[in-house]
Amino acid sequence: MATDGTQVVRIDSEEAAWNALNGLLSGELLASQISLDLSDLRWTKVHFAFKGEPFHQTVTASMMSGLVEYQNDLYRSVARLIKNDGRIIRLTDAEKRQLELVFSVTEGSSELFAKAAESLGALGKAVEKLNSKQSLIAILTFLVLFFGAAGGYMYLSHVETMKKIEAEQKGREFDQNEKKDLYDFIEKMLHDKQAQADTLKKATRQSAAASDISQYSDHAVDEVLRRSGEATEVIYQGLAFDADVISAVTATRRAKSEKMVIQDTFLVTALESENVKSYRVHLESVDGDWNLVAELEDPLVSSKYQKAIQKAEWNHTPVTVHIVGRRVGESIRDAKITKAFTPRKRKARA
What we know:
By secondary structure, the chain is α+β, with helices and mostly antiparallel strands. The protein has helices at 14-26, 61-83, 93-99, 121-127, 133-147, 150-169, 180-191, 194-206, 208-226, 243-250, 303-315; strands spanning 7-10, 34-37, 45-51, 103-105, 111-115, 233-236, 239-242, 258-275, 278-285, 291-297, 319-328, 331-341. The longest helix has 23 residues, at 61-83.
């Protein structure tokens, strides 16, 4: 215990990070009464292994471009944490230099390791100023997604969800037999990780920053796989993706941008605004399977839509929204809310 009565929670292992995250989400730990100690982050490591003929004792340009994108999403995550803005330009050159991962290549292989403890020094200092529940949840979510095994598993969950949405957009039922090998692989991988998946879903509901960081993590993994070239297998944090799985999960990423329209009912998990001209609305499907961030532009013009969204957030009730945007592979971009209203209650039959 600290001298002022604050409980110091030491995050010196991945297990400790999960325990603290679960404690905050359940209310067992109160953000106002704890302080996260990130002084020992030796456990934070990143491991990639690329297998296949082009990767025998070498590193390809395509593979390196994927790692650059991974690094960029790490930058975005830290910027979201310490600047409340996920744009990389919000970080200073000094901050980016400190956060840069330094990979070492195992001799005679294409295995890459990076120790992140030194890179995360700036994060440890920033934590001292971040004591809200949402901020602490976001920090812990970042650590387990980028430096534990959860990032790969949650990416697979995201892929399955996006395939379902894609099927709905094309006006057909989701057919799990369509890519049976892929979905069998996803179900097998997620089977023993359901508790962690549930924890991270709760985290993204309770913290807008955690929701953004989860999306950055998904994008980071997707970019590494998409740029893995002719790899017969990619291992990320112990999770192995073979060539068939890589091909299946990245196939639509090679497609061109397509216009997307969504009309559905959501829960509003958070509202953010840095000016009076727009809101960032964090939405979660009613069944809890997927999250989406969309812009409500010029709320003064769309005041009735803003009221419906705010009412849904305050009362924890659903809101029906119409959204337009672009689908690029497994991601939804430039999502904008064009209409929002409270769903009508169905009248009971006499």
